[in-house]
Design goal:
This protein has 837 residues and is α+β, with helices and mostly antiparallel strands. Helix 3 (47-59) crosses helix 4 (67-74), helix 4 (67-74) crosses helix 5 (82-94) and helix 8 (182-193) runs antiparallel to helix 15. It is elongated.
């Protein structure tokens, strides 16, 4: 055999280099997955975490221990160095569940590291001691060096894996379990025990808001969107009060600065005032909308992050992908089994104690101990004599008497037995029998016992562990709508170029690099292109603008001459959506076609134009007016209506026209606090361009706003939103908490400033707006009392109080009561409601 063939056959063999590498790699991958990166389903712990907790239990004496000492103790079980143990220990301590900490343990919100192990201390929490340890139910194995025993898994009686979450990257495998709320986990565990349905969603230490609509039970393919809470301190300043899960304040601020440098947002500066609580101030540039900036922060910075869960755990000695509901069920069933084992062990111990106490009672009460005073040949004969003496009483016992039982009795010091000693033994036996009865009852009603166990955990350790992350649906933010205009668009009409690099040519508008540009040429070609440094469209450009997709109100009015027949047509059309970079011919398609007139109308205005015909044509009237309002708005592909068959010299604007469109229909989406035109939420009406919207808030403010769809309205505080009528009279009832009364006032809106809130009720802690309307003759229905004491009445508010200034306090309507209910009634009188005024 040649050398080459020998070499090839060696590598092909399993025992060769290739085979060895294959086996070694599989062994290594298996080890990393099972022993390093992925938690076990039984206790929710990775091996290093389990070994740390076991070492801490061995050291536990109720006092704090230096972390350096804990690391040293854990190294007896974990063969991977002090750094890995220290990092895992700090991570456990920062979760604030199993370990009580003392000293500087760092901050997951700011990314600050913990102090060195020699400076910080830790001990097991009372919660950990209660739920994670029981030597009698623990399965043990030898440590890596064979010198000590360590737990295979801890007997965890709580869904720790879901409470703490887990991250791990193995070989070709990863896991990511998000943390869940302590109280909600216990409630879900009880529901599972009771056979009821439950739902679980993440809850993060860092707070914030989370959209869990695509959580998918924590399985692969799911997604959670997490946002920081951003408040508007004033019109020039925003405040961030928390950070998204997995993001530090430093990372967050860096992402904001980067977005500003890229021109995605426009701010003056960002300052970190974080102390015990997160507080990051963002100072806005002049003239920048706070609402748009908040949306832009979510769209372009780490103020919003998307997290993809991947619930992988070790079950039956192999990795398995399970949902969080499955993990909770497994944990609860495991807890129930552990509780059953503990009860069974306790029952066996009680039975043994009852047996020996009963033996002891008989031993002294029946004077069997006197066999010790008799002269027997050997010690075995003494034990046999005692055993024989017990024969008449064996029916009183629950099991046979063993030699060990008798030896134990003989070791007890014999002294004069008083009746009090017998009474004490009787009392012990009675107590043991009661305890045995209770344990048997708990075993027979194991579900109720497990429920009581969880309820006890919740009562003892649930305080202060309420949900921190607010669950709410997030609206989809269109990046184009919130991107700050960070570039300038120019056009070279003659040569047919548009772009941000044509700085020597005609300025068109400010734009962002996410925008699209719509362009029309004299030939009748329309094209939409992405903002770029320079794009060729076609010579003789007649209109350039930033393209607004799905805009059904902007109307283009056009007159063009067909290049083949010479006939001129007029058309009106919208452009709601197109394919980018595709040329659209707006004429009949002939090369020599030409646009004679073109206008852009934001609200479908239809002007009057003067048409001048060629002086050489045979037409009788060489000058006439054309009315665009006589043409329907059709698709951009329509030919249009014939204007004239004669050649046109020019078409000139003569007179502005009115909009031929009905007003814009607006809705208020109270889920996201946005105005919209997609029929989402409460219908507000049909609006002309100059009309405004009036908003009343339950904290006593009103505000007049425009129709801008990007503005944010605090939906949770809105008590009334409607089209603003400048002549309306507002009727409002509010609570005066200090005087314990409800006041009423009627006033006319006298302010005109847009997007500025005005406080119109009496100032004072606890004062809130209860009801408000702009009806001309409002009738307020009031219900007071409960049960048989219910009293109903109604008030004609315009008869109760005169119109006053918007800053007036108003007049007393009725006394405060927790049982008062108010609502605006129809004007028709109800027979069961007496009229008071």
């Amino acid at each position: 055999m040649s050398g080459a063939k020998k070499k090839e056959s060696f590598f092909e063999q399993d025992g060769g280099v290739t085979g060895q590498y294959k086996n070694w790699f599989l062994d290594y991958a298996s080890y990393v997955i099972l022993e390093r990166a992925v938690p076990a389903v039984e206790d929710g712990l990775k091996p290093v975490q389990r070994r740390i907790l076991h070492a801490m239990k061995e050291m536990d004496d109720g006092r704090f221990n230096k972390v350096a000492n804990i690391i040293g103790q854990a190294m007896q079980y974990h063969p991977h160095g002090d750094a890995s143990i220290g990092d895992a220990l700090v991570n456990l301590g920062q979760k604030d569940l199993l370990i009580e900490t003392q000293g500087n343990w760092g901050d997951v919100r700011t990314g600050m590291d913990a102090a060195a192990p020699r400076y910080i201390e830790a001990r097991l929490s009372k919660f950990a001691l209660e739920v994670a340890f029981n030597a009698k139910t623990t399965e043990w194995q030898l440590s890596y060096d064979g010198r000590k025993n360590e737990p295979v898994t801890l007997p965890m009686k709580f869904p720790l894996l879901l409470a703490q979450g887990a991250d791990g990257i193995a070989v070709g495998l990863s896991t990511k379990l998000l943390p869940h709320n302590f109280i909600e986990l216990i409630d879900a565990s009880i529901k599972h025990l009771r056979g009821k349905r439950f739902e679980l969603y993440p809850d993060f230490q860092t707070g914030g808001m989370a959209d869990v609509s695509m959580y998918n039970d924590g399985k692969r393919g799911g997604k959670v969107r997490v946002r920081a809470k951003i408040e508007e301190l004033d019109k020039k300043t925003l405040v961030i009060r928390d950070v998204p899960y997995g993001v530090t304040t430093t990372q967050l601020m860096e992402s904001i600065v980067k977005a500003n440098d890229q021109g995605k947002i426009k701010i003056k500066k960002v300052t970190d005032y974080t102390g015990a609580d997160i507080e990051i101030h963002i100072e806005l540039a002049a003239g920048i909308s706070p609402d748009i900036t908040i949306d832009a922060l979510y769209a372009f910075t780490d103020c919003e992050v998307s997290i993809s869960p991947n619930a992988c755990v070790i079950a039956d000695q192999k990795p398995q992908f399970l949902g969080v509901s499955d993990l909770l069920r497994i944990s609860v069933d495991n807890t129930k089994d552990l509780l059953q084992k503990e009860l069974e062990i306790k029952l066996a111990e009680l039975n043994d104690k009852w047996h020996y106490t009963s033996l002891e009672k008989i031993f002294f009460e029946e004077k069997i101990y006197k066999e010790l005073e008799k002269k027997h040949a050997t010690w075995d004969k003494v034990l046999e004599a005692i055993a024989d003496a017990f024969v008449p009483f064996r029916k009183k016992l629950k099991r046979d008497i063993t030699r060990e039982d008798i030896v134990k009795l003989t070791e007890k010091p014999v002294r004069r037995i008083y009746k009090l000693d017998i009474d004490e033994l009787n009392a012990q036996i009675k107590g043991l029998e009661d305890a045995i009865k209770q344990v048997k009852h708990d075993l027979a009603n194991l579900v109720d016992f497990a429920v009581a166990y969880y309820e006890n955990l919740k009562a003892k350790y649930g305080k202060g562990r309420e949900r921190k992350t607010e669950l709410k649906a997030f609206e989809a933010i269109q990046a184009k709508q919130v991107a700050i205009a960070n570039a300038k668009l120019y056009v070279n009409r003659e040569d047919g170029f548009v772009g941000t690099g044509l700085k020597k040519d005609e300025f068109v508008a400010d734009c962002s690099d996410l925008d699209d540009v719509i362009v029309f040429t004299r030939r009748g070609i329309m094209k939409v292109v992405k903002v770029s440094d320079k794009s060729y469209i076609g010579k003789d450009i007649i209109h350039v603008a930033i393209f607004q997709k799905n805009d059904e109100r902007t109307t283009y009015n056009m007159v063009y001459s067909d290049g083949k027949s010479g006939v001129s047509f007029a058309k009106r059309f919208n452009v709601t959506g197109v394919t980018r970079d595709k040329e659209y011919d707006l004429t009949k398609g002939e090369e020599k076609s030409k646009v004679n007139y073109f206008s852009v109308n934001p609200n479908g205005e239809a002007e009057i134009v003067k048409v001048l015909l060629s002086p050489n044509c045979t037409a009788r009237n060489k000058e006439f007016d054309f009315y665009f309002e006589e043409i329907e708005i059709k698709g951009r592909t329509s030919i249009g209506n014939q204007v004239t068959k004669y050649p046109i010299k020019s078409v000139k604007f003569k007179e502005a026209g009115k909009s031929t469109l009905s007003g814009k229909k607006l809705w208020f989406d109270d889920q996201f606090g946005r105005l919209n035109t997609e029929a989402k939420g409460e219908y507000l009406g049909t609006f002309d361009p100059e009309e405004r919207i009036l908003v009343f808030y339950n904290d006593g403010y009103y505000e007049i706003i425009d129709q801008e769809l990007t503005q944010k309205i605090d939906a949770e505080k809105v008590i009334l939103i409607e089209k603003f009528d400048p002549d309306c009279i507002v009727s409002a009832i509010y609570l005066d908490k200090k005087n314990l009364q409800y006041n009423v006032k009627r006033f006319k809106i006298e302010t005109t400033t847009l997007k500025n809130k005005f406080f119109f009720i009496k100032e004072g802690d606890g004062n809130v707006l209860e009801a408000v309307t702009t009806d001309a003759e409002p009738i307020l229905g009031v219900q007071q009392g409960r049960g048989d004491q219910v009293r109903k009445s109604k008030f004609k508010i315009d008869k109760v109080v005169e119109i006053m200034g918007w800053k007036a306090v108003g007049a007393k309507l009725l006394d405060y009561s927790k049982s008062v209910q108010m609502n605006w009634e129809q004007k028709s009188k109800k027979p069961d409601m007496p009229e008071l005024f």
